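re: ur question from earlier - yeah i can do the single chain one, its not a big deal. heres the input i used so u can compare w yours
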Amino acid sequence: MNVLAMGSFFLGLALLCIIWRILSTSHKRNKTLPPPEPSGAWPLIGHMRILNSQIPIFRALGDLADKQGPVFSIRLGMRRTLVISSWESVKECLKTNDRNFLNRPSFAASKYMGYDDAFFGFHPYGEYWLEMRKIVTQELLSNHRLQLFIDVRVSEIETCIKELYTTCSNGSVLVDMSQSGNTTGSKEPHTDHL
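and the output i got, formated as tokens:
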């Protein structure tokens, strides 16, 4: 009788554990559903072939958003990437749940070329990132610092417009603006401000 009571006790305990495990995993599964992902991802490149077609990237992502909804994920290589196309979802991600979306993946390039992820733009969220954000906001992007460099920006714009004028003065010419995008200090020295 004693063995029968012990056996039924352990059997009941095992059934209780199994039922609890099933209920707890099904409850968690409903909360953590991943966003929808379009079909057609290849094993190593993911959805890169969709984005590497003749259609511009914004149109390809817009077409996917029409099919999948305002929030979906694609795979760029081996990494899953969240794509958000509605302003309500963007506001929820960047205002309400901003701490959940602050981390960025660690890449080998940022580790080796960026002094072990020390670059401000690539560093993961933490104490160092918060301190660097404070320094950048106060020292580099303050109104005083922007006013110090206003004549540098004005002279660069004037130089760019003069180049466009001399290039186009002969008639209509196709101009590649990507070559004249970032020329700060390359043509005119601004050593008194730097």
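The first helix runs from residue 2 to 31. not sure if urs matches, ping me
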